[in-house]
Amino acid sequence: THLNPNASNETNESNETSSPDFFTASFTQNPYPVYEKLRKDDPVFKVMFPSGEFGWIISRYEDAVQILKDPRFSKDIVKRYGTEGKSIFSKNMLFSDPPDHRRLRGLVQKAFTPKLVADMRSHIQSIADDLLGKLPSQEKMNLIDDFAFPLPIIVISEILGVPLEDRDQFRMWSNTVIEASTGKNEELFQQHEREFIEYLTDWFAKVRKDPGQDLISQLVIAEESGEQLTEKELLGVISLLIIAGHETTVNLIGNGILALLEHPEQRDLLIREPELIHQAIEEMLRYNGPVEFSTSRWASEDMEFRGQQITKGELVVVALDSANRDEEQFKDPDVFDITREKSAHLAFGKGIHLCLGAPLARLEGEIAVSTLINRFPNMKLQKDVDTLEWRPGMVVRGIKEIPVLLK
Ligand code: HEM
After folding, report:
1. Confidence of residue 10 (pLDDT cuts 50, 70, 90)
2. Topology of domain 25-405, CATH
3. Residue 27 has pLDDT above 60, yes or no
4. Distance of CA 204 from the midpoint of ligand 1 (Å)
5. How many CA atoms lie within 13 A of 342 on its CB side?
6. How far apart are CA 45 and CA 293, in angstroms?
């Protein structure tokens, strides 16, 4: 997949990476010691990805900012591979350079302005209350499946206007696409991608006949006018929103609550001083950000960067979770401190591709975390933290299941 053509946790021994522990399962469980070493010894680190392509991992904060803002690092898949390819994702703002990027982002931006998002507060609050009210047991739950996952899904499904009943399918398709970065199951990926495309194409046809107020209807109308959006772009943009909506905020909530459970004094502080919630969310994003490897860029020309010779066509991947623990940028970076002053973390990226969904993700995170800790102040992990399993793949960083005792 183009979404992350570059990373795997699975293929280690046979992989010719120069760092033996880079793509291992223990890396997935805790990448921070490896990142620390990279920042110190190999901040611009050459690696051969399982796809056979050479590329670079950028681990320092300052370099990350520079790369994310430098237009010589292109995201445009068509320019790189010479073809749009068949992939559902090959045409959207995340994989375009200006001017296409500006046009595609502009069409969607209107739906995610801070003002529009802020107006959704009471509705998102009622979704959160509802989910917690309907738990099968008030004694325990799986934080991911019962709460962190459904909340953002309900919200994004409503914004897009797709039926909530189909959410299990969306989840399956999104997970396959994200985990395809492990290179494990190409056939399954293709099958799910085909189903995803068919579903969306049918849905667009239905919406075309009877458009509503939702975002898909607005984009379908833009596509029909012929000038702003092609059918392929429509598919690319909508599938990106569905995947972004399914794979990111869930992990902000999951990783964030986990950090509070591991640091009960921080949780108690947040219960005592609820106005700290904004800073707490920023610290959660910094401490264990949901997007680990910002989707790759590639060098559009030969260049020297920090003394390394980067060749035209090579991939460059920014390790956001490493940049966010850079000791040059953050004091005591491994300490989880919800009173940390405004931290300028990179969890939402930087530059023209800065996350479009950031205002929504922040609001969902705030509501989810506050509601949960106020309702269940004594919540505890049901398992030892070291036995929790982090999801494979290196695009998103999140935990598969978090069983908790609520009382
Ligand atoms: C882009 C992170 C939630 C939509 C990005 C990028 C990052 C990111 C790092 C930039 C990638 C790059 O530069 O290669 C996150 C995190 C989230 C989150 C950490 C949750 C905590 C969302 C949500 C949506 C969304 C909820 C929409 C529903 C997008 C879109 C882009 C994007 C459309 C592409 C923007 C562009 O290329 O101009 N996100 N995201 N994200 N995100 Fe998010």
Report:
1. very low
2. Cytochrome p450 (1.10.630)
3. yes
4. 23
5. 1
6. 14
The domain limits of the chain are 25-405
Question: Is any atom of ligand 1 closer than 6 Å to the C-beta of 105?
Answer: yes
* Structural contact between residues 9 and 182, judged by C-beta atoms closer than 8 angstroms: yes
- pTM of the predicted model, to two decimals? 0.92
CA of 105 to the centre of ligand 1 (A): 11
Rg (C-alpha) for the chain, rounded Å, is 21
What single-letter amino acid sits at 372?
L
C-beta of residue 11 within 8 angstroms of C-beta of residue 54:
no
Residue 140 CB coordination number (10 Å) = 17
Helix (H) or strand (E) holding 150: helix 150-160
The confidence score (pLDDT) of residue 9 equals 37
**300, two tokens:** 């559009």
pLDDT 10s digits, 192-220: 888 989 999 999 999 999 999 899 998 98
- Report the DSSP pairing between strands 380-381 and 140-142: unpaired
Please state, in angstroms and as integers, the Cα–Cα distance from residue 156 to each residue in 7, 161, 172, 248, 291, following that order: 27, 8, 16, 12, 18
355 alpha carbon to ligand 1 midpoint, in Å? 4
E strands present in 188-270: none
Q: What percent of the chain has pLDDT over 90?
A: 64
Quote the tokens at residue 193.
Answer: 């991608």
